[in-house]
Structures are given as structure tokens and as C-alpha cells.
């Protein structure tokens, strides 16, 4: 019936979206959902080009970044994805996901995401550790990053420059920049307070 997988997926997704009354949140995860799955690249992928052209504009598209688990996300890469999808993507962030190796737990701060990234996103979803309590630091530091991004959106850099050093360095060149180390320390203080509070509850 359909000449390609992309056209089949777009047709089914569009029909479902319209049948549901075009809801404000409708997410589509493409078969090629990160750069490493695209051939030869996101901007030259015939599959993604078709998805971007055929999928109704109200449907949001999920993207995980350069890889399934992306250590870094940059505005340059997201600009390429935005161009081929014809919309800003929703990042499905697998930075803390450990369902593929349950022997590991990720407790570091949210990092490796370029400052000013929110301007390139339609949203961000965090795929956490499978263990509930292990997600205090990931979610707490994500909140701190989000607050800093709100500040950068309110005061955008007129030159549109991206400071690569801010991905690894805790000191940014502008006021209110995100510091992974400071976010981690804040999360640890709040986590200790939470643990101490739980220890005082009856039956603990």
C-alpha cells in the first residue's frame, strides 16, 4: 500500500492524531531516533526527510541525540535535526538509563548539555535509573539545569554563541550559568536532609 516505511508510519500517525482530535501532546518516535541510526546522516536520511515532510506539524518527534545514550547534546547537532524534521525535537534523554545494564547506577549531575539548548527543543524527557531512590540526584540536578536554561532564555546571547567549555567546566562566562558541580552539591545537601527526615518518621 505504501512505497516506504516512513510514509506508512506518517500516514498511520496522522490518522490517529486526527481521530483523537489533534491533542496538544502527541509524540512520535521514529525508527531512526538518533544520529547513529541514520544513514548516512540525519540531514541526508531519506527516511527522516519523509517523516519531516509527511507528519502533521502538531505531532512532536522524539530524538535521543547523537547516540541512543548521548553523553553530549549540542545546539549545532540539534539545528541539523530541526531542519530535517521541520520542527524542534523532543529529547528523550537516556543519560541515566540503566535498563540495558542493571549492574550500573548513575548518580552524577545532569551534564553534557550545551547552554541555551532549550531554544532548540520542544521538550525534554528524562529516562531514569530503574531504581527509584537512585534518581534523586539526576532529577534534582535536571531541575537546576532547567532553571538556568529559563534564565538564559530570558536573557539570550545576542551573538548566539555556544560556550563549549561550559559542558565540562563549572564556571560559565555569564551570570546564572549552570554548574554541574554546584548542582551536585545542592542535590546532595537536599538528599541528606530527605534521608534524615525519613529516618525520623515512625517505623523507620
TrEMBL record:
<dbReference type="GO" id="GO:0009100">
    <property type="term" value="P:glycoprotein metabolic process"/>
</dbReference>
<dbReference type="Pfam" id="PF07555">
    <property type="entry name" value="NAGidase"/>
</dbReference>
<protein>
    <submittedName>
        <fullName>OGA GlcNAcase</fullName>
    </submittedName>
</protein>
<dbReference type="GO" id="GO:0016231">
    <property type="term" value="F:beta-N-acetylglucosaminidase activity"/>
</dbReference>
<dbReference type="InterPro" id="IPR017853">
    <property type="entry name" value="GH"/>
</dbReference>
<dbReference type="InterPro" id="IPR051822">
    <property type="entry name" value="Glycosyl_Hydrolase_84"/>
</dbReference>
<feature type="domain" description="GH84">
    <location>
        <begin position="1"/>
        <end position="150"/>
    </location>
</feature>
<dbReference type="InterPro" id="IPR011496">
    <property type="entry name" value="O-GlcNAcase_cat"/>
</dbReference>
Amino acid at each position: 500500500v505504501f512505497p516506504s516505511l516512513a510514509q506508512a508510519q506518517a500516514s498511520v500517525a496522522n490518522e490517529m492524531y486526527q481521530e483523537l482530535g489533534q491533542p496538544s501532546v502527541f509524540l512520535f518516535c521514529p525508527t531512526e531516533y538518533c544520529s547513529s541510526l541514520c544513514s548516512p546522516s540525519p540531514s541526508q536520511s531519506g527516511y527522516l526527510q519523509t517523516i519531516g515532510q509527511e507528519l502533521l506539524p502538531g505531532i512532536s518527534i522524539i530524538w535521543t541525540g547523537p547516540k541512543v545514550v548521548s553523553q553530549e547534546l549540542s545546539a549545532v547537532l540539534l539545528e541539523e535535526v530541526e531542519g530535517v524534521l521541520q520542527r524542534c525535537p523532543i529529547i528523550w534523554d537516556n543519560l541515566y538509563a540503566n535498563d540495558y545494564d542493571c549492574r550500573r547506577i548513575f548518580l552524577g549531575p545532569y551534564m553534557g548539555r550545551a547552554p541555551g539548548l532549550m531554544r532548540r527543543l520542544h521538550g525534554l524527557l528524562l529516562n531514569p535509573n530503574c531504581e527509584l531512590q537512585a534518581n534523586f540526584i539526576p532529577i534534582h540536578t535536571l531541575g537546576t539545569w532547567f532553571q538556568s536554561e529559563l534564565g538564559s532564555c530570558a536573557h539570550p546571547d545576542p551573538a548566539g554563541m555556544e560556550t563549549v567549555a561550559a559542558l565540562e567546566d563549572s564556571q560559565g562566562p555569564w551570570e546564572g550559568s549552570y554548574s554541574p558541580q554546584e548542582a551536585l552539591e545542592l542535590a546532595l545537601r537536599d538528599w541528606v536532609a530527605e534521608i534524615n527526615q525519613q529516618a525520623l518518621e515512625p517505623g523507620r
